[in-house]
Amino acid sequence: MKDILTAPWLTELVRTCTNMYAHGWDERNGGNISVRLDEVQLADYVYLTDVKRRIPTGFRAETLDGMYFLVTGTGKYFKNVQYDPAANLGVIRLVDGGETAELLWGYSDGGKFTSELPAHLMSHAVRLAIDPESRVVMHCHPNNLLAMTYIHDLDERAFTRTLWQMETECIVVFPEGVNVLPWMLCGTNEIGDATAEKMKTARLVVWAQHGIYGAGRDLDETFGLIETAEKAAEVYLKIAHLPWKQTITDDALHQLERRFGVKAREGYLD
Ligand SMILES: [Zn+2]
Fold first, then answer.
1. Which residues are catalytic?
2. At what angle do helices 8-22 and 219-239 cross, to 10 degrees?
3. DSSP assignment, residue 264?
4. DSSP assignment, residue 4?
5. Spacing, Cα 216 to ligand 1 middle (Å)
6. How many CB atoms lie within 10 A of CB 242?
């Protein structure tokens, strides 16, 4: 067996957690990430028959049965992940129709996966049905997006259009826009269901007065989605209270669609 701490999929997640903490998106134990892994990626690093613990997940996810995930631990601080990956992260295999997580590595201090596992796995199931290459679900608390949910209309079309207008690359990076959930109690199957439902039409789902969920094919793509939306929100907050002389027009957004071969969410542009 190779040393798991040298596995590319592990070191990339460790670096991502450190980077997200540095961005100020993951104060204290805020934020969580799950990455779907293939058996072949794991086989050199983990004994797949050596189940350390069986942990109930509290919900069913039949389509994910037998799949492997690297998941951040509940109550863990992103800032500490780099110093002790084995305590802060875990590799699980879902069995019993998703109702049980078999722990293969990690959570070495007796811990378990994030309390937001329902939202993660329900989102994985939805995104996988749309894109078989989808692998990552990421949740964090970016300052400017969070602030924007206090002062901006939460209507998804209006929210998306404002972000698209704040930076030219936004419509290219997330042409499907961002979806928005009103404030809901976190850590529940209900918010997991609601998030997954929103994931059917966009890779970004804002949780009002809380943070954001992103989904993508890899950590870079998912981080980049959130990073771009967060930058747009920052620009918005810098100018929201000032008189605007100009903005990115719908005509300009249509030009970007043509230039970059993307299609804006139906009905979102005039
Ligand atoms: Zn959160």
1. 116
2. 10
3. P
4. G
5. 18
6. 7
The pLDDT assigned to 25 comes to 98
pLDDT computed for residue 140 by the predictor: 98
According to the model, what pLDDT value does residue 24 have?
A: 98
- Distance from the CA of 141 to the center of ligand 1, in angstroms? 6
Instruction: State how far the Cα of 267 lies from the Cα of 110, in Å rounded to an integer.
Output: 49
Report the distance separating Cα 185 and Cα 208, nearest Å: 11
In this structure, how many other beta carbons lie within 10 angstroms of the beta carbon of residue 11? 14
Output the pTM of the full model: 0.97
201 C-alpha vs ligand 1 centroid, how far in Å? 21
- Token pair belonging to 258: 């043509």
Q: How far is the CA of 25 from the centre of ligand 1 (A)?
A: 10
Measured distance CA(160)–CA(164) in Å, rounded: 6
Q: How far is the CA of 255 from the centre of ligand 1 (A)?
A: 36
Residues 202-245 have pLDDT tens digits of 999 999 999 999 999 999 999 999 999 999 999 999 999 999 99
User: Strand 68-72 vs strand 204-207: parallel, antiparallel, or unpaired?
Assistant: unpaired
Pairing relation of β-strands 136-140 and 68-72? unpaired
Alpha helices in the chain (DSSP H): 8-22, 39-42, 78-81, 85-88, 117-130, 143-151, 156-166, 170-173, 189-198, 219-239, 250-260
Identify residues whose C-beta is under 5 A from ligand 1, the ion: 211
Strand order from edge to edge, sheet including 100-106: 53-56, 100-106, 89-95, 68-72, 32-37, 136-140, 211-216, 204-207, 178-181
